[in-house]
User: Fold this.
Amino acid sequence: MHLLNRVEAVACAAREFPWLGDLTPSSIQRWIALELGTLLDANTPQTYGEHHCSARALSPILHVVSGNTPHAGIQSLTRGILVGGKNRVKLPRQGLPEFDHFVRLLPAELQPETSNSLHAAWIEEAEALVVFGSDETVEFFAKHVSPRQRLLAYGHKVSLGLVMGSFDANVIEGAVRDVLVFDQLGCLSPQLFYVAGDSAEFAKGLAERFNELFLSDSAVAEWTSEIAGSLRSCREEWKFRAATEPGIQVWESPESLDWLVIHDPNPSLISNPLYRTIFVKPVPADLLSVLTPIRRQISTIGVHPVNSNAVELAIQLGAQRVCPIGRMQKPAVTWHHDGAPTLANLVRFVDIEGLA
Amino acid sequence: MNMALEEEILCFLQQPDEEKFETIALRLFEHQKSRNPAFARYCEFLGQSELIDSWKKIPAVPQQAFKYSELRSFPASKTAAEFHTSGTTRQGFGRHFMGSLHLYQAAVQKGWDYFNLPRYPLILLMQDPEKAEFSSLSRMGGILCNYRRDCFYVNREGGVEADRLRTFLWNRTDPVTLFGPALAFLNLLQEISDLPLPPGSILMETGGFKGIDREISKEDLYARLSRCFSIGVDFIWNEYGMTELSSQFYSRGLGGPHFGPPWLRFLIIDPKTNREASPAEVGLLRIFDLANLWSVLAVQTEDLAVAQGDGFLLLGRDPAAVPRGCSRSIDELIQRGTSIKREKQGIGLGLNASVESR
Assistant:
């Protein structure tokens, strides 16, 4: 299928998934142009310096999708389709209904082969493997992939927010929305906010907004016993600490496990059970050293306000993406996922010399 | 000090009278609230307007609190013993202080006897309490063997003394009790594959199965122990205890519930409401231990369990059972970094670092 038709097909299927972001034909074409110029046009190699060049898809592409955040799987498939590869997808055992729905919206010839189990032949035949999962999953594939295959590994990440100036209700609203998406399970979901000003006031603001949102939402989250147990244990532990340690404050959803906000004056990193559990801490003088243990795993840092100082600080902290608070879950379609181009990594560049 | 109350609880341990449990528990609660500032602040924070007129209403302190506060119901200067949790997960380790060991000793001995556990010669896969001053498990072993050093089969470096164990069991015909943490048994199984115990012997293992470096199910461990020691699975017991408590629950074989002695009660708490769960519902285990005179008598664990008769079926806790999407837990990352560093330094997980609570 021609590139333009693939772009149309992806944009058409994506219309039913607004949370995938801006995937219109024009935005997709701009994305392709940014990463590959016109090199993806299979029919005409393009002038490239003193020679010509063409970009051809690595194919087949094996996408290994894990976890319960379907957007990652759909995004990965989208990239594979756009570059023109044959796509195979290993889905999690429990399946991904949203992914299946997206696939059904694609023309038959663009639909990938899918499986809930991993076939050795798929690994062997793949020219590129895109792996989402834990470090252990990534390590497994790293061991089983030959140096002649391209492995793009998207391991688990931590994201956080940085409030460096005065904040208002809009910033609070944005922070709450960033936490709510995917129940805080996405790699772009903030786990904590560092606040330069009145951090306790920021935490209180988050709690008040959560309370308003959940008061009007009667749906009670049905967590498993394991999830509910970890959330309850976290609440009780921090309530004890709030009772016995100065500066710690806890706000929780009444009679439910819907959300939890903890203000902790100690800036050091702490365990977070997620599922709408958010920590707020003051910005320490040595934030760089506080975050050193997770520096390589930081994905997105949401900042407020967005200015050169805040951006530079976030970059120094290890961010691979810096954005305004409130847009943490909405990366541009052109973003460099985990710091690398998403389309250009799925092609081989063929350099052609001597072509008139 | 708390002589009168200590004496009263000791009497209860000697001659349990179920009807007195509540009276003693309520007195103990008032006593601890008046002498334990951290506990008093917690009770005040919870702001319960409801009258505490039942042992079930006594506020339970989260197990993790032992990491953050000195939960003493007696003056620090009178500390007679101090036990530490292993601190293998999360921040730091917990500490349990005791003003005397009389109650602890009685709880260990009377609990053991309550379940008619045999007083065979003990082989203890743990360190001598002199080498592990802060280990409650070592202390328990010491109490059970009357502090005979030759009963302990884990050396200062944390290694199991398999050769000495073989020698002790060589040609032995009288039954023995082999007692230690699951991790110690796993280490032992790496060194020996066939070491029949004399007929009638029992095994007592303690500690968790999930979350330790070497993943193994309880079924797999019991099958391997059964083969190695030529002992029926029904002769393998589990002791469920923790540093934060003074008494222990026991279960026998696979799939059976844990039971405690009369001075130890439990509730299953619905994590969604923080109130007692409906029968047969899975929830968090909350324990009330009258022998915990020196700290707090009610401890809220992070373990999942379901009530079964007078006991509970322990489901434990498995961090891996909580789906996390692609968002990584910060403490996992830090722990992973630490464990990689330890591997590079060639430091193994010794037996003095077992599971969370011990």
Remarks:
- Residues 1-353 of chain B form a domain with the Rossmann fold fold (CATH 3.40.50.12780).
